[in-house]
Amino acid sequence: MTRKAISYLISGSFVAMLVAAPPLAANAADLGAKDQTIKLAINEWTGQHVTTHIAGHILEKMGYKVEYVTAGNYPQFSGLADGSLDATLEVWMNNVGDIFPKTLQDGKIEDIGALGLETHEGWVYPKYMEQICPGLPDWSALTKPGCVQALATPDTLPNGRLLDYPADWGSRAATIIKDNNMPLTAVPAGSEGALTAELESANAAKKPLVMMFWSPLPVFAEVDTGWVKMPPCKSQDNDHCINPPEVHKVLWKDFGKTWPAAYEFLKKFQMDAGAQTQLMLAIEKKGQDEDAVTKDWVEKNQAVWQPWVSAATGS
User: Fold this and answer.
1) What global pTM score does this model have?
2) Does 25 have pLDDT greater than 60?
3) FRET label pair with 269: which of 63, 99, 209, 295, CA 20 to 30 Å apart?
4) Do 204 and 108 form a contact (C-beta atoms < 8 A)?
5) How are strands ordered across the β-sheet holding 160-164?
6) Are residues 188 and 88 in the same domain?
7) Domain final residue pick, 240, 275, 291
């Protein structure tokens, strides 16, 4: 457990002891329509699965029925808007597409705040690339002829290849390349698994690679990597910048009316990056079942999540 998580646990427990029963009861929310299933969106990356299953298991302990529904990163907002989905719990706010702001402005969804996940996103490379492209981590090293040639593939010649996010995730890489006249071509990967697999295989073979990626991810515990120091933003628009992203929780507009206690719990629910990384490692590297792994975490860490439930329900 990280120092931050331990600090939160201690302070959370201390506060819980100090708060008297009447204020908790006064703030308590009713369970609401507990016979109606809460549909939680499952996106394309393991970390999001961990976050969602942990929240789902706790909701079940509160007395709710939960269903996990596969939903794409962009299409999920249409599902939330029409009520076919009820919540998505790990929304990377720098990559929400065009549907999110429109449905938020129209009042069809509700952003209930940050998940508390410490993040990093940008262009990453295995450390040996600093010998292949002298000048890294500065972005200008990627424009030098020797580096471009090393990164080039038959499909990208004369440009170098930058491995990008899957096409349906959206990405800022191609825009940033264009903004800065970089001799690179962004090539979409097939999936999160394909991104991880290429980083691992390139590292094993010492093959040239620069790629769009994010953390927390378990692969960073195994591969020595560096992050490119990106060029200055041409615009503060998300399409032209890569900044450490906030990660939020987003609900169907009527979630709070339908399940008041669940709503209060999810507003308080937080995910620690260190804990998430360890669970991803168990799932991706050790082949453990994600439902079993996350359920086990919930059973062993009641001291972490019980204050959120107690504050929501008054119990």
Assistant:
1) 0.72
2) no
3) 99
4) no
5) 184-188, 160-164, 211-215, 120-126, 225-227
6) no
7) 240
